[in-house]
Amino acid sequence: MGRLRETDLPAMALACEAYGMAMMAAASLHEDGVLLKDGVHGGRKVNPSWRIFREASEAFRSYSQSFGLTPADRQRLTPLQPVEQGDFEKFLAARLVGTGKEGNDAGIEDS
Predict the structure, then answer these.
(1) Does 1 map to a domain?
(2) Average pLDDT over the chain, rounded to an integer
(3) 18 CB contacts (<8 Å, ≥6 apart)?
(4) Counting Cβ atoms within 10 Å, is residue 15 exposed (0-12), middle (13-18) or buried (19+)?
């Protein structure tokens, strides 16, 4: 909790784009197959979506590791020191009292 910063958002957006590209390519592969008819030579050729799927999957894996999203990478993360709550976090914490999601259960770090 509390590790993602505003400066991380472009990289996180690219990770999401890579995931979306991989899923679109996977859908194409499921629909059309890995091998396509080659209209020029009459044989078969590899679906171009296969390369897109591999490259987008690799990009997503790389971003996932950078953000500590894989189980192995989460284990390597060191705990953050608690940060002081800002006014907005204090406001949210006050609104969550009695909802069963006080403090860290609501995603708000203790000060």
Answers:
(1) no
(2) 82
(3) 56, 57, 59, 60, 63
(4) buried
